[in-house]
Each structure stands twice: as structure tokens, then as C-alpha cells.
């Protein structure tokens, strides 16, 4: 197992507040965050989410007013349909709706992972009520029956508990990767086969980390950012290595390293990459935009809480800074894509877990000009 002992170090990198952008508009006006229906649960952070049939399911997490009792409640968000080819005023009030579903089937927890395989959601691992104990149990959610069923714990001959991991979900398999158990940071990846109800360990060539971000795009997974106590792929303790995963390829050739997320190249394209790397950020993908399919990264922290928002071009492997998130800075929020649209919800103020919890939901329009009154 490739892993790093936490004792190697814990220095934090302070964020630099200067940035530049290749966008036509100034980055502070390029993109618009619009309020949607408020999350109906406890204002909280460090929950987990998955998407089934263009509906988002969110839950678990930390209530900062009662941090010794993690959450189990789960909610479903259904976005209002609209035609993105119409003018923005045609759908600016498309708030969508929330409904509560069955509580998570396992014990209350935070810092877990969620993913979907076909028509079922999965949620597992995480941190117990004591704020320390890592968990390995994984549960399957059936939206038709509104029920949870426990599946195989993460691991093979022995369990592999962890929290602050990330996940991929594909048509026929799911993956949980990286994370920490309070003693080690992991650089492993575990594949779940729902047909056999078994986990199989696979290969990840990147740096051990926790608190990373993942996307799914065109049948491939993307892993970026995160925290590591020590790695050749980090500035301070913030990971700058960026990876693409192809589940159809053999184990040793499934990963491709993309361009770094920091200014590590002598060329000029990355000179403005000064605040992309972070921990506990959130991401989502918006396909089919007028300028091509894009991935987005926002919030999180790197010494202080961030609102910096960046757009990734899948075609060019380049980043452009966009309008910062319009709500308060925070960590432990949730990001998701439904109906080819990107959303961010919940989170806790600051870079830790003891600040104020949030219940706002915002949708990002990357090709609109910033409007502070949305």
C-alpha cells in the first residue's frame, strides 16, 4: 500500500491573493452565481452526495452547533427544467424543490463519500461522532423503494476505514480512493463490483492525499487538489498533481497525468495559477456550454477559506479564473451536476469545522456576467 505517515509534516501554504485570467471579461465579472431553493436540513458541512437520474441526493455531515453528533438525514433536490438557449431572464427564478428521503442507513457521520452506479446511490466511509474514528461501511440507496441496504465494507481480506476520501461512479462499477485514517494518508483506489458485492484494490500513481475533488466526464474520472503531509507533487501541503482515470484500461495504464495545477512549467500558460490548489474544495461539470464542455472548482481552503473559482477546459487542458463564489467563503460544501447544470450547496465557514454552517444553494452560469442581485 502506498501511503504517507501524518508525522511527516503539517505546514500549511498561505494563499496568494493575486490572479490573472485569459478570459475576455475581467474574471470578477465572468460567470454568475444564482440563488436557488434553500437546503431544508440543518445548516451544515462535510456531507456527501450522489446523483441518480438527474436528481441530487445530499446528507450526513457536521452541524457546527453540535459537532459531537454527526448527521444522518438525507434530502433530494429536483431542479426546475428550463431551456438554456433562452435569455437568462427566462429561468432566473427556476428555484427547484427539495424533499426529505429516508435517513442514511448507517450510523451518523461526516466526511464520507457518495457515488452512483446505474439507478442506485452509494454512501460510505467517513468519520464517526467522536470526530476521530474512521469508518469502512458502505450502504446502497434504492430511490424507488426509498430504502438503504448495507453492502460490503471497503477492503478485501481486511477493512480499510478512512475519511476525507473521494469517489467515482460509472455505469457498472464504483471507486473509492485516497483519504486518511488519522495515521496514514492513502494513495490507493478500490473498485466496487455490484454484481459480486466485492471490492478490489487497484493502482493510483499520484501522491497520497485527503480532501481532494473528483469529476466524471465522458466516462472518465478526474482527481485533483487535496492535502498531503509530504509529497513531490505538492506546494507546501497542497497537491498540484492532476490525474485522469479511464476505467476501461488495464490497472497500470488507467491513469494519465494532466498539466499541474500550479506554476511548475517554464511556459507562460500557468503563470496565473496561484490559487487553484486547495483542500476540501468542490467541483462540478457543465457539459454542452457554448464554448465547450468545462469542469469547475470552487470553495475550499489553503491556509484560509477560498471563494476563488476556476474553469477547466477538457479540450485544451488549461484553466481560466472565473467570478468567485458569491456567498461566504467556506470548506466542506457539496457540488453536483444535474440537467447539465452545476450547483454548490452547504458548507462551514472558514477552513475548519467549527464555524457557521450554511444552507444556501447556488447555480453557476459560466457565460453570464456577474450580477450581485441574483
Topology:
Elements: E1 3-5, E2 30-35, E3 48-52, E4 55-61, E5 71-78, E6 97-101, E7 113-117, E8 120-127, E9 134-142, E10 147-151, E11 166-169, E12 174-177, E13 184-186, E14 188-193, E15 198-203, E16 213-217, E17 220-224, E18 234-235, E19 238-239, E20 243-245, E21 255-257, E22 282-289, E23 292-298, E24 309-313, E25 318-322, E26 330-331, E27 334-338, E28 341-345, E29 348-349, E30 361-369
Antiparallel strand pairs: 1-13, 2-30, 3-4, 4-5, 5-6, 7-8, 8-9, 9-10, 11-12, 12-14, 14-15, 16-17, 17-20, 18-19, 20-21, 22-23, 23-24, 24-25, 26-29, 27-28, 28-30
Describe this structure in words.
By secondary structure, the protein is mainly β. It is built from no helices and 30 strands. Strand 7 (113-117) and strand 8 form a beta hairpin.
How do you describe this structure in short?
β27 and β28 form a beta hairpin.
The total domain count is 1
Helical amount: under 10%
Bin the strand percentage. 35-45%
CATH architecture group name: 6 Propeller
Q: What gyration radius follows from the Cα positions, in whole Å?
A: 19 Å
Overall mean pLDDT stands at 90
Number of strands: 30
- Gross morphology is globular
The main sheet comes to: 4 strands, antiparallel
Low-pLDDT regions: 1-23
- For the largest beta sheet, what order do the strands appear in spatially? 2-30-28-27
CATH homologous superfamily title: Kelch-type beta propeller
Continuous helix count: 0
Going by helix content, strand content and strand pairing, the class is mainly beta
Task: Fill in the CATH topology.
Answer: Neuraminidase
Termini separation:
48 Å
